Hints:
Number of helices: 13
Distance between the termini: 29 Å
Radius of gyration: 25 Å
Strand content: under 5%
Structural class: mainly alpha
Number of strands: 0
Largest sheet: none
Amino acid sequence: xxxxxxxxxxxxxxxxxxxxxxxxxxxxxxxxxxxxxxxxxxxxxxxxxxxxxxxxxxxxxxxxxxxxxxxxxxxxxxxxxxxxxxxxxxxxxxxxxxxxxxxxxxxxxxxxxxxxxxxxxxxxxxxxxxxxxxxxxxxxxxxxxxxxxxxxxxxxxxxxxxxxxxxxxxxxxxxxxxxxxxxxxxxxxxxxxxxxxxxxxxxxxxxxxxxxxxxxxxxxxxxxxxxxxxxxxxxxxxxxxxxxxxxxxxxxxxxxxxxxxxxxxxxxxxxxxxxxxxxxxxxxxxxxxxxxxxxxxxxxxxxxxxxxxxxxxxxxxxxxxxxxxxxxxxxxxxxxxxxxxxxxxxxxx
Length: 349
């Protein structure tokens, strides 16, 4: 090995480190996928704890018992999330037939303007029930597996909610438990890294929630002014979708425009599209730089690659968890870099 030039040896050492880290990460991801029924609720509970921690701490400071405060926090979450889901589902169900009718009309308009290409789209829209019936046998064969997935999802949601309760109630013991599990001499470093990672996740969740609330309020007001039905439900959908950066905003905005097209026509749909785009511009150029720069900052390219990787591993849940987990990893890296930079001068001397 000494026969090789120093730059080559350094390159080989870095390659070995990268391969080792990549192998550990790959094995960790595979283990998480295999035990996702237990891992996903824990991760969701950590995100929920990071988001709800300030509310719980305020209740405790007000003199409420820690267990009671954690229970009240979980009840509030169930009420808010359940209400939002009900509003969104009700709005989409009420407007579903109108959306299909509007799409069929749009296909006919394309047929008049573009001839045969538009005619195929018109046929597709007009015969959508026949197409669904044609593939109904394939869909029916997956009913049992679909019921199993729904049951597994409900079980994971209940487990995550229970874990949020325990994490909130016993959060004051987390530092002591972490230090007791740390190897000798590494307790301070491990505590600092865990604290930095939790701060990054908490900052991301807090900033994303604030941005999502502003987006939802602005779009809801715009849709109410345009007299679009289900404006409150669509605003709730925007709020939920904001937790998946970029993709969530695109999907929720598209649904809002489709509902506007279904009930109010093409012109109002264009106005709704303008409202959605204006809110996205406000988010991208004002809210994200001002709010997220105070909490955690990641380049948009990193966010998009992270979301894609999360989707390939765990679908929608992967997209939801990818960015906050990456924020936690960035927090650990920043803590290690700061500690290394602080210890470097002393080691040289």
